[in-house]
User: Fold ATP-dependent RNA helicase from Selaginella moellendorffii.
Amino acid sequence: MKKRRKSGPGNSSDFLEKWIRAEALAPGSNPMAIKLPRQVLVNPATGFKPYAGASRFDQLPLSGKTLKGLKEAKYESMTEIQRAALPHALAGRDVLGAAKTGSGKTLAFLIPLVEKLYRLRWRSGHGLAGIVISPTRELAEQIFLELGKVAKHHRFLTRGLLIGGSHDVGLESNRVGELCILVATPGRLLHHLHQTATLDCTYLQVLVLDEADRILDSGFARELTDILAALPNQRQTLLFSATQTRSVSDLARLSLRDPEYLAVHSESAVATPATLQQKVVIVKLHRKIETLWRFIKTRLSSKLLVFLSTCTQVKFVYGAFKHLRPGVPLSCLHGRQKQGKRDLVFSNFNQARPSVLFATDIAARGLDFPAVDWVVQVDCPEDVETYIHRVGRTARNKLKGKSLLLLDPSEVKMIELLRQHKIPIEEAAEAAPRGESCDLSQQIGAWLSKDPGLKHSAQRAFVTYVRSVVLQRNKEVFNVGKLPLPEFAFSLGLAIAPRIRFLGKQAASVKNESQSLKNELAKSSSSSSKVAGEVKSCAADEDGDLFMRLKKRGRDFLFGVLEDGSLFSSCRHKKTKRLKIDARSGTGQRLVFDEDGSSQDERGGKELWSSNARIAERYKRLQQEMKERDRQDKVLERLRLRDKRLKRKARERKLDLIDEDMSEQGDDKPELLDSLSLADQEALALKLLSRSNH
Ligand SMILES: Nc1ncnc2c1ncn2[C@@H]1O[C@H](COP(=O)(O)OP(=O)(O)OP(=O)(O)O)[C@@H](O)[C@H]1O
Assistant:
């Protein structure tokens, strides 16, 4: 027969409660300043062992169930923030905890939450006792998983995850009233607070805000105010973040009671993990995509997390790079994806290696992706806090990691700001290849002409990026007027920058960009197609399509740009002759990154092209030539179809005019009718007939 395990005195809730009270350290004192011996002896004055200054979980007044869960998850020694926060939080005090990214803040709030409910003998049906709020769904899921480890053996502490997306709200509503602990995003929590009658928060014991500064900022202001209005003031509140708020108004909203401010790394000389190497490279906006591409290509065995500022940019760069096949698995994570997809990407990236994940700032905070080698910030972060959280996805829990920030020359002020905030960022060698063509934009342009979805995504990426810059608060760093927008559009494979209405003018109309575009086209044509020829003509037609003609050795090259911004190029041969391609000449400057993330011009270095590479390059170029011809046919077909469409529309307009005319003049036959062909007259008759039937 299975023996029932007796719960010893160290396991019982009463015993723990007495132990905590008897050995509670004075408010405001720092547990880190206390050194406990390895073998802690019972304090004769209290009859309990001191726990302030403990370095291992088993030295704390914790239940056997929690200790078992921690041991199974291989958590034995505490991190600094856990050593600092747990003695105060276990004693029931409000805590405002700040510690570097990846330093173990999650356990610093989950353990006191679970233990408090254990000591209160909380059960399902007693009402909701603990709420953990997280700013993003993925982070909420991660916290929920971590809670599962800590509370694994507390079978009475029922818990649930409330996040937007795929989960069934109706099903949640049926069950939410039975739960003791909820991990939630603000919006979904508020939904249930308003809509679910069985959700009773009257006896809430602990409220936790993870990434507290984010939840307290203006983005969640309305939700948080409404949530707080539904919760009792008598509760323990725990706030944690790597970049903590101390704003009096923020804290007043939360009705904190004598909170303990625990900033364990405030004395540290650097604000980011000591194991993190940080580089910044100044590269013009329109060279960023190419720089990123080359960076990825030279890091094919690494795990990379790449940040861009908008969903559409993430979608576009992911889509374009997927077509171009860098040779490493790619994925993307952004707020417009369905929750199921987001979950899949998140869990795949956790396991995948090598891998590249393109993401917006929804992945910037809290997510604990294992062993990310590089965090690359293609777009400048909106502020220093965002930078700290983004780079914090690597170099976690004392592991090594590297980060690379790409800044347009107009954004260099950011380096100063970062250094002022104790961020040791080193400037790497000049990265922008000067005055050279960007083959990549041509290749992307080729895909845009084949894939209308990708083209639309490129246009949206351009517009949303510009809008995000315009909306930035720090105008010293973000100045849309200084950005090379037409060139940026070109780097996305678009030949014409889409209209940006919110700038109050057509930022890159055909007229004002034709010169720079002409230069870009001339550059790209001379480098990639080996036509160092003269630009014969460059003209825009009334539809906004732009054409440029180049001539070299009897061959006509036509470059064109359709009104929607897509680019095409074609080559007409006057006489058939074998195509000779010199694989080595005319290639653009290549940017090579060494292990440290420094870059160097490949031409300045040793010869890297083996003969195999030359052959591969030759085939690639031949393939491109064939694709160009194919594209030319497609363009001609498109123009033909457009002509047909225009003619049809003109005819329909004519029919409508006659139709209106006839309704105004009664049965008198208008003169215009005489000019119609028999087929058109039949069409008109049918139209009138169908109307009279209605
Ligand atoms: N005591 C511990 N012993 C061993 N590993 C730990 C311990 N505490 C936390 N960890 C591990 O450290 C990693 C980072 O922890 P966590 O996600 O809590 O960091 P964080 O400080 O919340 O980071 P961020 O500021 O990015 O949100 C996790 O993988 C976690 O499992």
Notes: Residues 75, 77-79, 82, 99, 101-107, 242, 366, 368, 392, 396-397 surround adenosine-5'-triphosphate (CB under 6 Å). The chain is about 40% helix and 15% strand. Residues 227 and 238 are 16 Å apart (CA to CA). The radius of gyration is 32 Å.
